[in-house]
Amino acid sequence: MKADTMDEKERYCTLVFDEMKIKHFLEYSKYLDLFEGYEDLGPLRRSNKLLAGQAMVFLIRGLYASWKLPISYFFTSTSVKHTDLSILLMDVIEKLLDCGFIVTAMICDQGKNNVSALVKDLKMKKDKPFVEVKGRIHLDLRDVYEIDKNSGISRSLLKITDSHMNPDPFQLMSCKLAMQLFSNSMAAAMETCIMTKPLKSNTPVNTLDMVKELNNLLDFLNSKSLFDKNPFKCAISQERPQQLEFLLKTNLGSKI
User: So which domain of life are we looking at (predicted)?
Assistant: First the structure.
């Protein structure tokens, strides 16, 4: 796998997708024992009647390094529907994350179906120019919790329970559970799991950064002391420049 030979910076990439017309052509594949050339949308469906006239191609390009890699293509009889395209996009992104790539942006032309897939289906807009890959962060937290819970030596996450991993509708609104989950204890446990490598995911480093920032943010917003050994738990002061740096980093500094 190409990602295995890259450092973290080299794995940052953009996802490029575009559609092109192709000639109708049928060819028998002795390896698959079927005729190729019909509409084929991979995990969505395959037709044995509609001849493919369009090809949707997905390609990734390095953001900081000079490389590019075609990763998948799909055949359709006409332009791919925006509802299908949005599903394929999320499927491709999830598989890229599983392979260790870090997708930072999607690039395409302003075709009607492309725009509809991004804006209508994936809910992208001016003040939310990104998509959320469901479950990615939660899986990392859950894996760390399971590793800690099944540890035969000692536990680090004593306050974390199954309610944190599978909250009911009322527990989802609990600030206490959120503060316990996104805490220094969780960050320390995750860091240990990253160093000892029992995690199979390729995203725990990013999740760790998020947990640390959320922990600092929650400490900052709940600070009620003038002085504390933790600079994020005390009042804002010019003597603590890391406070302002943190606020600017989280884009809250411009709102204060």
Answer: Eukaryota
Residues 80 and 45: their CA atoms lie apart, in Å, by 12
Q: Are residues 236 and 244 in contact, defined by beta-carbon separation less than 8 angstroms?
A: yes
pTM: 0.57
Q: What is the rounded distance in angstroms from the CA atom of residue 90 to the CA atom of residue 81? A: 15
Residue 55 sits at φ, ψ, to 5 deg, of -130, 125
Place of tokens 């479950």: 135
**Quick check: 9 and 62 in contact, CB under 8 A?**
no
Cα distance between the two ends of the chain: 46
Tell me the sheet residues that pair with 148.
Answer: none
DSSP character at residue 125: B
Q: Are strands 54-62 and 12-21 parallel, antiparallel or unpaired?
A: antiparallel
Q: Is 47:38 a contact under the CB 8 Å cutoff?
A: yes
